[in-house]
What does this fold into?
Amino acid sequence: MGQQVVVLGAGMVGIACALSLRQRGMQVTVIDPLGPGAATSHGNAGVLARSSLMPFNHPRLWSQLPGLLRGRSPGFRYDPLAMLNQWRWGLSFLSHAREQDFRETTTALDALIRHSGEVHHRWMDAAGVAQRRRDAGWLFLYRSAAGFEAGAFGRETLARFGVATAELDAHELHDLEPHLQPIFRKALWVKDASSVDSPGELVRAYARWLVELGGQLHTTEATHLQRDNGGWSVATADGHSLHADHVVVALGPWSRDFLRQQLGLKLPMGFERGYHRHFTPASGAALNRPVYDTAAGYVLAPMAQGLRLTTGVELNAQHAPSRPAQLDAAERAAREALALGERTADPDWLGSRPTLPDSRPMVGECPGQPGVWLALGHQHIGFSTGPGTGELLAQLMLGEPTNLDPNPFRPQRFLRS
It folds into this structure.
């Protein structure tokens, strides 16, 4: 109790780790060059859903692979050269698309998401931002009966974990979302889901609460990490050096390079890049909850900034130039579904979601580096899993009983001392 902890990263996961540790009496300093909620945590669709337990590398991926590799799927794009450079990660990712791995991953993610949802609800109340949350679930939309049948495996998986859903016909869908165009034959209403009207603002609200509790935030970059008198010294770009008993690396997609440069660790991380664009809906057009067009691979979510259109996955290098074709295709498809209106003045957004080969995050102490803790690799569901990650990491650090099984998330899966 009272030990010094430096948390690197102020996204949802980093701020959640900091909050969980501060609530247990640790002295916490968060370092991030962009500030809270400004990077990957800013750009998602704001959905907190138990349906996110489905990883991209599931057993049905093998049958879908030939079509995906043609690069024509609206929800999936990839850069061949980038994949060639990351072939080891790609092969490992595919090797986990097996039934046993799938069951282990879905079981682990379901526990983490359920716990995160409970913590989110408590924290939103405590941080004074419960009004940003909607508890109306979200919708999977199907343009054809064949498309609905193709989603049977996903629905069976959700049912196996007791996720509350309801199948809707076109008339029932219209009752829930009357402004959608009548192009969808079926829908799945995932009731075990909440959403927020600004993911970035929620992270910033959590960060303000952290400061009220006595935590510190430094808007700068950690440039050097080295052992120091039984702990660690963290040098920053603004010329400061902080001593810490523990350091938490929660840098999202930047974690891979940081761990390689500072500790010589090779982290098998790929990047699921995604885009978003905002629209001011036409008069009378609105959504009551986020919707996912399964055929066109986009999500539309009502946000404080207007309607947010988010794309599916683009596998590419983290810092590769923007490729707006996927976002443009998503906009064309979304205009068939809803009167989007005009684009807002907000620039298009691009973010990289960090993915480990088994689609599970790493949560725990770094092998061979006592006092360095890892909270990274949350792929595209860090928003749904951040608070549970923070609680688990704090419990492991302080030797408390854990709310969920930590073994599926242990760093030793891919890192050796």
